[in-house]
Fold:
Amino acid sequence: MPNPPPTSLLDTQSHGLSVLATLHGEIDLLTAPVLSALLAPLTVCARPDVLVDLRQVAFIDGTGIAVLAVARDAATAHDGRLRLICTHPITLWILLHPGLGFGFDVLEGLPAAA
Structure:
């Protein structure tokens, strides 16, 4: 029997009024379903404010980006927001490229706790 995919979520903690989810490793076709299941409860409460730290992510593919987009849309649907923290140049280029139209709110670092 194959091993279950590794969890992509390293840590979830409060950061002021936000929830900080720090991810690591690779987010791809194998780990995306696990990540989706872990992010879903963070985005369906009233007015969620979720910070997803991608600084320790070595690789993210289109499936991983789609999971982040679904989580962002869920947070927005509940009058909240999902912000990404990312400094990797290639990942930033993909997340912010206007032609791809992802529309993510990307920060360079952890904001001050409110």
The two ends are 46 Å apart (CA to CA). Residues 59 and 90 are 10 Å apart (CA to CA).
